[in-house]
Amino acid sequence: MVELRPLLEEEREEFIRRNQAAFLEALAEEMPEGQEVISREEILESLLAPKAQAFQVYWENELVGGVVVQIDLETKRNFLDLLFVDGNHKGKGLGLNIWQAIEQAYPDTEVWETHTPHFEVRNIHFYVNKCGFQIVEFFNPAHPMEHVPDFPDAELFFRFEKRMK
Question: Ramachandran region of residue 90, left (φ > 0), alpha (ψ -120 to 50) or beta?
Fold first, then answer.
């Protein structure tokens, strides 16, 4: 059984390192050598966002991943910001178990939202076919993300939603 334990401040740097390693492993073929998949600053921004809730993920009492969600108690529209499974635990179905634990932790959620790059086929499959999300928007240079004013041409992302109620 997957357990979500709140991320402690003293665990933050290791969480960032593990998140970067997991993303790099997943996207190594897509990224130029030496380029970060996700920067420390991006992860910190996620962790320190006003509505952020971050968790270490344990399975059978072993640390196996991490997650950051943004929870809006007023609108009940919540955002899955980061979800990762450590490399040596991938391919065991833990991602879906983590997602189900998140859903159970926030039963009042009406809509979940997340984003993923267009080339991340594993993520697209995971969110659509395993977790029940739908693709609702495609961000590209002609339709950039609102909160990213200097949207680079290479940034092509899908936005997903999952309606819970």
Answer: beta
Do 128 and 161 contact (CB within 8 A), yes or no? no
Nearest in space to 52 (alpha carbons), one of 24, 34, 71: 71
Percent of the chain with pLDDT over 90: 71
C-alpha 125 chain-centroid distance: 14
- The closest alpha carbon to 63, from 30, 98, 96, belongs to 98
Dihedral sign for Cα atoms in the order 65, 68, 73, 77: negative
Q: State residue 23's pLDDT score.
A: 86
* Interval 65-120: pLDDT, tens: 999 999 999 999 999 999 999 988 988 899 999 999 999 999 999 999 999 988 88
Domains of the chain as residue ranges with CATH: 2-163 (3.40.630.30)
The residues pairing with 161 across neighbouring beta strands, listed in sequence order, are 113, 134
CB 98 within 8 A of CB 83: yes
Report d(CA 55, CA 3) in Å as an integer: 9
- pLDDT at residue 19 tops 60: yes
* Phi and psi at residue 4, to the nearest 5°: -100, 120
Distance CA 138, CA 39 (A): 23
